[in-house]
Amino acid sequence: MVAGPVRNRLSSPPTVSPRQVEPRTHDGAAGDDATTNKTARSPRRLQRRVFPRAPITELDTAMSAANFYIPTLPGLPADSTLSMYGGHIPSLPSTSQVGATSATSSESDAHLYFFMLKARHIADKERTIFWSVKRRGLHSASAHSLSILYSDDRFNGGPGCSSFDGSMMEVGPLRLEPGSKGTLKEIDSAWNEYANVVFVDQPAGTGYSYVSTNKYVHEMDEAANHVVEFMTRFYTVFPEFQRHDTYLAGESFAGQYIPYIARAILDSARIKTPLKGVLIGNGWIDPYSQYPAYLDFALQSGVIKKGSAAETQVRQAVKECMDALESRGGKLKVKVHTGLCEAILQGITDATVTSVNGLDVCVNNYDVRLTDSYPACGMNWPPDLADITPYLQREDVKKAFHASRHDGGWTECNGGVGSNFWASESVPAVQLLPKLLDEIPVLLFAGDQDLICVSDAWVHRL
């Protein structure tokens, strides 16, 4: 059995029609006092809070946009016109903040790393910044600029995987030439065509972010408070961005983070930016619905055969999982992680193991049309990882990204972050969605070949 949840990449393009969940009402600007009369339905710790600013550090006084400007990167074409910024920003909330724990003590030196790509073009009124968001009547960039905070949090036994996966393998404009040992190329149709995109390594300790050893965050609202602190300080460096229409986007386990972060922003008196919506791809949002959906998807997609011994074994794992969840209070008491329920996915992948040329292979959990070596079952995918890891570990690359303060080499996933972040006191993000939908639109999209975060079942149960 795996030690913890393994949520990861948006394995395939969203070939199914994206689902956009409309807000039932929209009571003025995000974070406006008009929303405060409805907070009684949310968990106590999520009610409107005024976050005191943490003490200004020496680093704060030295920060300016010029300090974060990235003129070029090793291997980037000389004629590149990308406008890039990046570096570390403190994310330590005040110890007097609601929900502060040992990870937010004065001994912590939590800093989140960000990599920002400014929009390539300014759109006119007819341009669509995000085609799926356009249905919500999104204004074009000529009227309102758009910023995106992209948090690409994945599982390798827990959260703690870097947003460079998103920026260099998925929605960003940069790719490494395969086998080139560091030659970058630019692609068209990245998310920064008409939007500023900010990729954030969070929680602290993820990717190029850093934090004192044994000071990792443990709960969802704690991680969200770090992001609020980061954004507050980000806006002191880039004050013009605070006026931009802002969206939170991410995939997989970010399906838990994003609703918590959105709620913290809307409840914060410190962030005045207009939060216009959130986008979640292949999200791990509702464990109670998604755990049993593993088997349904595996049967429908032919990953395991109906009537097989594998189906019988996995169905027993589903029963044990659901019995355990019911014994702990059912849907409203389920936690973000339930170790027993991970046996469902493990049973499915184990059932697909075959030998090819003497090598054991299994289904790729992120695209069931593919296979991977066992027991990785997708963790070696996509193949870009083989080039990205050594590139981001190079000292000249770290220096160019303003990431030299990060001690040690870049790793895609930090096991220390993952093993400490079990969110044992946090309710699943699906319980935050009803109130969020009263205030902002939520866009859900998913690849139809993704097994790791089967989404269709829980969406139908909303």
Automatic annotation (TrEMBL):
InterPro entries: AB_hydrolase_fold (IPR029058), Peptidase_S10 (IPR001563). This is Pheromone-processing carboxypeptidase KEX1. The keyword Protease applies. It is an enzyme of class 3 (hydrolase). It is a single-pass type I membrane protein. Residues 9-18 have a biased composition (Polar residues). It catalyses: Preferential release of a C-terminal arginine or lysine residue. The lineage of its organism: Eukaryota, Fungi, Dikarya, Basidiomycota, Pucciniomycotina. Its main location: Golgi.
